[in-house]
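User: ok so my PI wants both of these folded by tonight, can you help

Assistant: No problem, let's get them done. Here's the first:
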Amino acid sequence: EKLAEYTGSKHCVTVSSGTDSLLIALMALGVGAGDEVITVPYTWISTAEVIALLGAKPAFVDIRTDTLNMDETLLETAITEKTKAIMPVSIYGQCSDMDAINEIAQKYNLPVVEDAAQSFGATYKDKKSCNLSTIGSTSFFPSKPLGCYGDGGALFTNNDELAEKFRWIRVHGQECKHHHPILGINGRMDTIQAAILLEILEVFPDEVRSREEIGQNYSAGLINVEDLETPRIGKNNSSVYAQYTILSKQREEIQQLLKKKDIPSVSYYSVPLHLQPVFKNLGHQIRDFSVSEKVANECLSLPMSPYLSREDQARVILTISRKYDPTNIA
C-alpha cells in the first residue's frame, strides 16, 4: 500500500527479488516459447535472463548516447509478428523516453514492462518511475536507491487482472488455498524485508534529494576534466543516481588512480548481453550494438550514496581531476 501510494499506481505486489518481479511480469503476460521480448543489451543479465528462462528470445535494440537508455527511434524496426512485449531499462537512475515507447507499443498492441530496478524514486514528466507503462518492475537489493537488507522486489500496475495474476504467480499460481489455475513460483517478499522497507520509506524522499544533489555536485566538479563524460539527464527526467557513472577512454587509468587512494569504483556491464556466452545462440557479433559496446568499454561508476560526505566526494573529484596534472599528484 505504501509503495503504491508513493508511485501513484493502483496496485503494488511485493515479491522476493527484482529478478523474480521481471519473471512474474512476463509470466502474467503469457510470454513463452517462440515469443520475442524487445530489450537492450546494456543492462544486468536478469533483464534478458528471465526472457530466455521462459523459452522466449531476447530481441535487442541499442541504447541512446545521452541517457544510455533504450533508443526509441530503433524500437519499431525490432518489432516482428513474434514480439510479445517491450522491456525498456531505466539505467543508472533515470527513465527511458516512456511516452515515445508507449506510443509505439500501443500502435502494435504490445505491453510495456519498465525494468525500473535502478530508478525507483525517479520521475519522467513529473510521474514516478514504475507507474509509466503497463507494468513497472523494481528491485530492493541493498545497492538500489530503495534497498532492504537482502533481496526484494515489487510489481506495479493499474490493471486489475494483471495485479491478480501477480498475486497468484508469487504463491505457486494459487488463486485460493489448494487451487492452482496457473503455474507460479515461490516469489513472496520476506516479512523482515517488508518491515525494513517501511522504515526506510520514511526517509526515502530525503535520500532522493541527497542523491540528486550529490550527482549534480559530481557533474559540476568533473565538467572540465578532459576525455571524460558525465551523466546526461533527459530533459523530462529526474534521476536518483542509482550509480554515478562516467565514461572515459582512460577508464583503467582512472580506476587504478582511485584504487591507489583506496577509493572504490566499478565497471558495471563491461560485457554487454549480446556478447555474453550464454546468448551466443542469438548470433550477435562485435559492432552489432555500437553504442552499448562503447559504453561498456568506457563506463566507470564512482562512489554514490545519499550519505556520501562532502569530504569524501571532494576527494574523489580531486583524485580524478589531478590525473591530468601529474605535478599535483601526491
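One down. Here's the second:
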Amino acid sequence: MKRLRALAIDDEAGSIKALEWELKLFSDQVDLVGSTQDPQQGLLLLKELDPDLLFLDIEMPGMNGFDLLEAAGPLRAQVIFTTAYDKFAVRAFEVSALDYLLKPVDEEELGRVMRKVQEGRRHERFQQQLEVLMGELRQHDPGLRTIVVPTTDSLEFISVDDISRFEADSNYTRIHLAAGKPLLIAKTLKHVQGLVEGMGFFRAHNSHLVNVRFIKRMLRGDPACLVMQDGTTVPVSRGRKGDLLERF
C-alpha cells in the first residue's frame, strides 16, 4: 500500500495538532509532511511539497478554503475539507460527494475518509462536485454569494456582486464582469441560471441573464431594451417585460 503525503492548512493550531495526533493511527498509510496556519504559506507549500492529500479548512480569515483553491489552480492532491459547520453543511457535503471531516477530527471519521482515499477514488468530477457543494451551502447561508465556474485551466470563484450579466454563446456562457475581461465557460445559460437562482438575476431574453443591480434604464420599444451601467444594451423578450417591472 502506497504511503500518501499529506499537507494540512488550518488557521487553528489546535485543529492541526488534533489531526496530526489522529493521523498517527494511520501512519502506515499517510505521512503529514507539512502544515500551516497561514493560507498564503499554504499556497507555497502546495507547490513545494506537491502532496497527495490536502486537508483544507474552509473558514479562515483573509483567505478561506475556496479562495485558496482558486489561487492554487488545478491540483494533483485530493482535497479533504475540514469544517466545524453544522448539520446543514454536512448534508451539503454528502450531496456533493466531496470528502470532509468535522472538527474535532476523530478516529472513526478519519478512517472513513482514508478508506475512500485508499480505494483509489480520484477527483475527476471535482469541479462539478464543488458547484454542487456551493449550491447546497447557499440554500442554508444566503450570505454566501459566490459561484464556482470551471475554465480551461482553473476553477474561478466569483462573487455574484461582481457580475453584471451572463450571455449565451451556443453551449457556452460568457460572464461579463463589472471590471475585467469576460470569462467564457463550458456551461449553458440554463445551467448558470440555476447556480444564481434567488441571487438578484433576471432572464431578460433567451440569450441574456442580467444582474438587476447593474440595470441603468429600460428603453421603450419593440423589443424593449435594458441599458446596463457599462452602456451595453440587452433586449427584453416581449413576454418578460411585465415580469421585470413586477420586481420593482
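The longest strand covers residues 30-36. The mean pLDDT is 83. Good luck tonight!
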